[in-house]
Amino acid sequence: MGGRGSLARQLLVWQLVVVLALLCAVGVLSVVQAGANFRTTEGRRMLSVAEDTAATAGVRTALADPLRHYALAPFATTAQSLSGASYVVIAGADRRVLTSPDPRQVGEPLELGDSTALQGRSWVGELGGATVAHVPVIGDDGRVLGVVAAGQQAPGFWEGVLDSPDNALRLLGVALVIGVAGSLLLARRVKNQTLGLEPHEITALVEYREALLHGIKEGVLALDPQHRVTLVNDHARELLNLPEDAVGRSVDDLGVDERLRDVLTGRVTGADQVALGEGRVLTLNRMPLDVHGSVVTLRDRTELMTLQDELDASRHATDTLRAQAHEFSNRLHTIAGLVELGEYDEVRGFISRISNAQGRWRAEVSSRIADPAVAALLIAKSSLAAERGIGLRMDPASFLSTVDDVLSTDLVTVLGNLVDNALDALTEQGWIEVLVRLADGEVLVVVRDSGPGVAPELAEEVFRHGFTTKAAEQGPRGLGLALIRQTCLRRGGSVHVDGAVFTARLPVEVAA
């Protein structure tokens, strides 16, 4: 538990401190209000007592005759008893006290303060902690014969609380009971909401969470129900290229790719969703958290996709070899049949035509395409197209010299995916024409086919990852065109489609 006690006990103590402070404030206000009411009420009452005493004929007569001063005491005592005042004092015009409940005051000067009684005007104020009224006693000739002072001692603190017109003590008691009960309920509720964890345990969990978030090699992104970022670790910030002030901002304001935005916001659901980031292929998994939003984990699949591309290249090579073997087998069967028929001249002509056709394509590719990787790709794609009954030809304007390895790899990615896309688009016999040309500091790649092409309204959508007209049976086939766009944009180039013509531009120098 620790030396400071449990969380519930600490909350209870602090709540009680707040309640007691509130009660003290209420008590002080009650006393202040009671004091103000006391001064107003008692001031009027003491003024009335003093006026009644000063207006008594016996008081005036006794003050006018020094030999009758002894007769003043009964008047003062009677007024004090009937009114309940703390004291009633009668003094002469020379301020000397003539009668008082305290014998020690008799003969002493009456304390007047700011009183105007000796000037012939009544006065009410505070003297010595009491509310006092001074009223002059006026003789028949208009002279001031003396002063009648009636005072009521102000109550103490607790007397003020007890005598409060609002019954403050009862209110304080009710407030105390409600405060204690509310504190107990609050402590219990907080205990339940924190799952019984104490403050040091909650602190430890937060520290563990921070260490975990920043220590794992996966990106973690938390969003609230309004799709605002509430938490992001360093790896997620790097994978998504997020700004430093990403926390608190909406996903729509972060400038991420549309596909990424769909996955992060839940518009696209499912496990291991693939999306393209800043030069990376990402795998995302989104977990909704009821009313609290969602948590998205991200993994960098770039290296895995590179291995997959290499595997695809091996698979394409295998398919090409299989197609060539199938084609070679068919040709052998044809030659064997012609030999059995004794058509030796036809055999020689058939073999010559085959050799010339293959030699022409290889010669054409080699004469126009100096880069070995691009040339090998076109020769392999020709065999694959021939197996499907599709003709692959090259535009006469094609020309490509040897380029650096990075550009060569990008060209293989762009050209290979465009040719594969054209092969998939042709369900019947047709043709594909390829143009690869280096000019004005960029490589122009144009692939056209005899297929129906892309509808104008879908010209932009086809390059968005996940788009495909055959997604149901082929899965994420849209990744190829999305990779083409990402490759072109990364180099500062572009790609677009016009019907059945795809055009890509790749600058030789990568844009800064």
Q: How is this fold's topology laid out?
A:
Blueprint lengths: L6 H48 L2 H8 L7 H12 L3 E6 L4 E3 L23 E5 L2 E9 L5 E10 L3 H6 L5 H26 L5 H17 L3 E5 L5 E4 L1 H7 L17 H8 L7 E4 L4 E8 L5 E7 L1 H39 L3 H25 L3 H16 L3 E4 L10 H21 L5 E9 L2 E8 L21 H4 L4 H12 L3 E5 L2 E7 L5
Parallel strand pairs: 11-12
Antiparallel strand pairs: 1-2, 1-5, 3-4, 4-5, 6-7, 6-10, 8-9, 9-10, 12-13, 13-15, 14-15
Helix pairs in contact: 1-3, 1-5, 9-11, 11-12, 12-14
Gist?
This protein is an alpha+beta fold and 512 residues long. The chain has 3 domains: 7-162, Beta-Lactamase (2-Layer Sandwich), CATH 3.30.450; 216-300, Beta-Lactamase; 304-507, 2-Layer Sandwich (Heat Shock Protein 90). It has helices spanning 7-54, 57-64, 72-83, 157-162, 168-193, 199-215, 234-240, 258-265, 302-340, 344-368, 372-387, 405-425, 471-474, 479-490; strands spanning 87-92, 97-99, 123-127, 130-138, 144-153, 219-223, 229-232, 273-276, 281-288, 294-300, 391-394, 431-439, 442-449, 494-498, 501-507.
Provide the gyration radius in Å: 52 Å
Main beta sheet, described?
A: 5 strands, antiparallel
User: What share of the residues lie within helices?
Assistant: 40-55%
As for the number of domains, it is 3
Backbone shape: rod-shaped
Membrane topology: Multi-pass membrane protein
Catalytic activity: ATP + protein L-histidine = ADP + protein N-phospho-L-histidine
Enzyme class: transferase
Pfam family, one: sCache_3_2
